[in-house]
Amino acid sequence: MLKLKYFAAFASNELFGSSFVKKLYDYFDGDIEKAWFATSFDLKTIGHITEKKINSFLRLRDNINPDNELEKLKNTDINIITYDDNDYPKLLKQTEDAPMWIYYIGNKNLFNAKYNIAVVGSRKCSTAGKNVLSKIIGEFANLDLCITSGLAAGIDTTAHQAAIDNNLSTIAVLGSGLKEIYPAQNKTLYQKIIDKNGLVISEYPIYSRPETYHFPQRNRIISGLCPCTLVAEATLKSGALITARLCLEQNRELMCIPGAITNPGTEGIYHLLKNGAGIVTCGDDILNIMSWNINKISSSQKSKNNLSKEETEVLKLIRQDFLSLDELAIKTGLHTDNLMIILTRLEIEDYIMQTDGGNYIAK
User: Fold this and answer.
1) Considering only the top CATH level, what class is 307-362?
2) Going residue by residue through the chain (363 aa), what tens digit of pLDDT does each one get?
3) Which residues pair with 200 in a beta bridge?
4) Among 20, 68, 107, 332, which is most exposed with the fewest C-beta within 10 angstroms?
């Protein structure tokens, strides 16, 4: 908890930047507290940090209280995972510019999903492109597989919705803070992902607005979480091609869905295919390229296997005794807002029920 408050302090202001914090973190051998209290002399010794950046950091730091930042976070339904956390996504940590922290809501077990496919593509995609992508993802129905995308309009929305419709896990990587859902029309989809035991994440402060430069930045996380990336419709200047380049730089597998050559949205696709990307026309193509042999898993099995540590703890307590919300809050130390989310999930997944007297009992 001591370390966490300094990560929370750094994360609270986007102007610090994850790459800057990584320099401090490495310089102080992974001691985030020392990094927070770095002196002007330390910052100049590190090197490759401008005088302007040094002065900006020192000025901003003076106005931030780490204890307050951690307390603010505790009063929301949002959690934070840090670079030195054992549960930090292993594949992402292997990348050159891995974020020092990730805010998240939902099932953190998905951070290290074994079978995880990044799906990217145009916001202004064709109906045919959406239909083909939905068909391919539909062929994975009930497999222990995760679809990761960016919650944007178009291909991203199609990918997340197809995952939900086919009993697959899904991760949404936002280009805004977790309290500023963009685009606004995807607020319902955002909630569906959480309700279906999925995961929504962002490296940006929780009330950060969706800035244009956020989206190319967040693409490294989308590809970094996954051993492979599937591109479904992309123009030559599409942000999806940025993700494709990052995928290759991260030494991951790149695949594309072909489309009509008369569609401008396939220009980027054929550029990637001509340069060696794998071609995907059905779900089995992905499984074969990746040499994946994935077992089918039922909804009840999936829910059971994907219970978070906190959900498992709460369920264990309820199985031992009839407990009220207040009693559970005392026993677990969880904030009541977070506890209510956990209890709602356990009720939805048919593990528990609430009695007329307000107590929770196991089924």
Assistant:
1) mainly alpha
2) 679 999 999 999 999 999 999 999 999 999 999 999 999 999 999 988 999 999 999 999 999 999 999 999 989 999 999 999 999 999 999 999 999 999 999 999 999 999 999 999 999 999 999 999 999 999 999 999 999 999 999 999 999 999 999 999 999 999 999 999 999 999 999 999 999 999 999 999 999 999 999 999 999 999 999 999 999 999 988 889 999 999 999 999 999 999 988 998 899 999 999 999 999 999 999 999 999 998 776 544 555 556 788 888 898 888 777 888 988 999 899 988 889 989 988 888 778 888 877 888 877
3) 105, 172
4) 68
Measure the CA–CA gap between 127 and 132, rounded to whole angstroms: 9
CA 342 to chain centre: 19
Q: How many helices and strands, by DSSP H and E, does the chain display?
A: 18, 11
The domain limits of the chain are 2-75, 106-290, 307-362
Amino acid letter for position 211: E
- Give the three-class secondary structure for 68: helix
Look up the CATH number of domain 106-290.
3.40.50.450
Q: Which residue type occupies 119? A: V
**CA geometry: angle at 201 spanning 148 and 143, to 5°?**
30
Residue 183 preceded by cis peptide, ω within 30: yes
Partnered with residue 228 across adjacent β-strands are: 117, 253
Phi, psi for 204 (deg, rounded to 5): -90, 150
pTM of the model: 0.81
Strand pairing report for 146-149 and 116-121: parallel
